[in-house]
Write a structure and sequence with these properties.
The complex is a heterodimer of chains A (316) and B (257). By secondary structure, chain A is mainly α. Chain A has a domain at 26-242. Helices cover 74% and strands 1% of the residues of chain A. Chain A contains 14 helices and 2 strands; from the N terminus they run αααααβααααβααααα. Chain A has helices at 5-20, 26-49, 59-74, 80-102, 107-127, 151-178, 186-190, 192-198, 202-228, 233-236, 239-252, 259-276, 281-296, 300-315; strands at 137-138, 230-231. In chain A, helix 3 crosses helix 9 and helix 11 (239-252) packs across helix 12. Chain B is an alpha/beta fold. Chain B has a domain at 3-88 and 165-256: P-loop containing nucleotide triphosphate hydrolases (Rossmann fold, 3-Layer(aba) Sandwich). Helix content of chain B is 39%, strand content 25%. In chain B, strands 6-7-8-3-9-10 form a 6-stranded mixed sheet. Chain B has a 4-stranded antiparallel sheet with strand order 2-1-4-5, covered by helices on one side. In chain B, helix 3 crosses helix 4 and helix 3 (96-108) packs parallel to helix 5 (149-160). The longest helix of chain B has 19 residues, at 238-256. In chain B, 45% of the residues are buried. The chains are: A mainly alpha (316), B alpha/beta (257). Chains A and B meet through helix 6, helix 7 and helix 8 of A and helix 2 and helix 3 of B.
Chain lengths: 316, 257
């Protein structure tokens, strides 16, 4: 395998953050955890987006996995690795099943079909007593391969665990995006006939992307469930959650697998500070930010970073 | 020579309209065949049915012994029957190199090996060699959308041939190309195909090109094959003269005879 700047950059960033976690305040660490969760979902959207597909319903996989963590937890499963992997895999499986239908649609229908399913999930969760109805469920603190930290140690451990998961996701997606399968992006977007006549099924390509995307959203939901210690239908499965993921994806841009996480951090920071200045102010600030991004940097924060780096290289 | 393609009783109806009927033809390995006929004669319908783009209403298409009627295009492609299009079907925003690179990637990997990196040195070299044999190497970095029609046609055909097909069908390779460019273009294509010893069938309106490059002609009129003969013979066949070549040729041929 050839020299990959992205993998090296991501590895350095993850190691730095792992060291930093011991010195940062709790609220910053919490923002980090939420960003890992939201960023994973946005990474899933990136996989679809590069092929010109967008989903307004990824809260389906996010919420499905978050509830998976909660339910497994109530059944007595405490290990974070088991909770996250099993729940995310369940989301991937759900995406695989729905994929047989979704892969036949494009554009607005593709975007809204997943949302239709997410609304059904929301309805089921909000109406079922066993799932805690609109109040949701609490999650007992997880253990990590037998290690059961408390208080600040619990948050630090969870942060390191989250980093590990996110690092794995970024590497996996990076390898996928460089592969023959992952490189069928513009090709599928621009000319499905030619792809078929080159000898590959377009629906198969889209199906795989959809499963990867659902799996990533599942990891995001599972991390979120552990990070906030509870799940509820309003914040996990309602369509506004899906909207937030699309927001983060636009904010971030599709230039790199690290972009969604940078976008998510920006999103969480904006939300955090906007909340402090008034309950309804943050929507206003979010709207303004979205407007500014679309008008001035349509390729997202990543494109700005890229331009800065190029400028520096140019000076050399 | 072994027969690679056997078409029998092929028919296509769109409601009450018969687009093609009673089409039967055998193609042997190594042949070069021209498909001629007026607009609407059923030439493209024939190619579309054989390559899986259009489901025939009746009849069989046997390629390398398999009845490929009802197969999706990708399976037919994998088996070794490839095609180009009248309007080039390429990835417009990608460079010439990337277009052909992806074609190679899909042709060379399958199943889980599709997860291997698309780019590697060996594949890059094969792509460059392929571009060179179609004489489009100098456009390597140009986006397909910025190419002239002739170069884009070459790219389309180059993409259709990365699998080294057993049979290649070209739908009007010279349509939309200026008269001056046409002959050079066709020379490039035929030279590249000869090198690989590809069996080829192409639809063509220009009789000079047909006479220059093919040994056998299939003439279509009103959805049927009205003549299947060596080129020289076909050019003087009364039915071909009447329905395909038209009055000008008609007079010329008469005076020769």
């Amino acid at each position: 395998m050839s020299f990959d700047r992205t993998i090296i950059g991501v590895t350095i960033a993850v190691v730095l953050m792992a060291c930093a976690t011991f010195f940062i305040p709790d609220w910053v660490r919490q923002i980090g955890l939420l960003s890992m969760a939201i960023g994973s979902v946005a990474l899933g959207l990136l996989v679809l987006w590069r092929t010109g597909l967008i989903s307004f319903g990824h809260a389906l996989f996010y919420g499905f996995s978050a509830y998976g963590v909660a339910l497994l937890n109530h059944l007595g499963v405490r290990d974070a690795f088991v909770l996250v992997i099993v729940s995310a895999a369940a989301s991937g499986l759900l995406a695989w099943g729905l994929g047989f239908l979704v892969r036949r649609y494009r554009a607005i229908f593709f975007a809204l079909l997943t949302m239709a399913f997410s609304m059904i999930l929301y309805g089921v969760l909000a109406k079922t007593e066993r799932f805690g109805s609109t109040d949701g469920l609490n999650i007992h603190p997880p253990t990590f391969l037998g290690y059961a930290p408390v208080d600040q140690a619990a948050q630090i451990t969870l942060f390191l665990f989250g980093l590990l998961v996110v690092y794995g996701l970024m590497l996996g997606v990076q390898i996928y995006l460089r592969s023959v399968l992952g490189q069928m992006t513009t090709a599928v977007r621009e000319n499905e006939i030619r792809v078929e006549y080159l000898g590959y099924s377009v629906e198969h390509v889209i199906h795989i992307k959809y499963v990867i995307s659902g799996l990533l959203a599942g990891f995001g939901g599972a991390i979120m469930a552990l990070a906030v210690g509870q799940v509820d239908p309003e914040s996990m499965a309602y369509w506004t959650a899906s909207g937030e993921f699309v927001f983060v994806a636009i904010l971030a841009g599709t230039g790199n697998v690290a972009a969604p996480f940078i976008g998510a951090v920006a999103f969480e920071i904006i939300r955090h500070f906007a909340w402090e200045h008034g309950a309804n102010l943050w929507q206003l600030i979010m709207g303004g930010t979205l407007l500014a991004i679309i008008m001035f940097v349509p390729d997202g924060i990543w494109s700005v970073l890229q331009r800065l780096v190029r400028k520096k290289d140019g000076v050399k | 020579m072994t027969t690679i393609l056997e078409v029998n009783g092929l028919e296509k109806r769109f409601g009450g309209v018969v687009a093609a009927q009673n089409i039967g033809v055998n193609v042997s390995a190594g042949e070069t065949i021209g498909i001629i006929g007026a607009n609407g004669a059923g030439k493209t319908t024939f190619v579309n049915m054989v390559t899986g783009h259009l489901a025939p209403s009746a009849g069989t298409v046997k390629f390398l012994g398999a009845n490929i009627v009802g197969w999706p295009p990708r399976r037919i492609t994998e088996l070794g029957l490839c095609r180009s299009f009248q309007v080039p079907q390429v990835f417009l925003s990608e460079s010439v190199f990337d277009n052909v690179l992806l074609a190679y990637g899909i042709a060379e990997e399958s199943g889980f090996s599709m997860l291997r990196p698309l780019r590697n040195k060996e594949r890059d070299a094969r792509v460059r060699k392929h571009l060179a044999s179609y004489q489009i190497a100098e456009h390597e970095k140009t986006a397909a959308s910025a190419l002239s029609q002739g170069i884009r046609k070459l790219l389309d055909i180059a993409m259709a041939t990365v699998r080294k097909p057993q049979l290649l069908m070209l739908d009007e390779p010279t349509s939309g190309i200026s008269v001056e460019e046409k002959f050079d273009l066709m020379d490039i294509i035929m030279a590249a195909l000869r090198e690989e010893q590809t069996t080829v069938m192409f639809i063509e309106h220009d009789m000079e090109i047909v006479q220059r490059h093919v040994a056998r002609v299939l003439a279509f009129s009103q959805g049927e094959i009205i003549c299947d003969a060596p080129t020289a013979k076909a050019m003087v066949d009364p039915k071909v003269v009447e329905f395909v070549l038209g009055q000008e040729y008609h007079a010329e041929v008469r005076s020769d005879a």
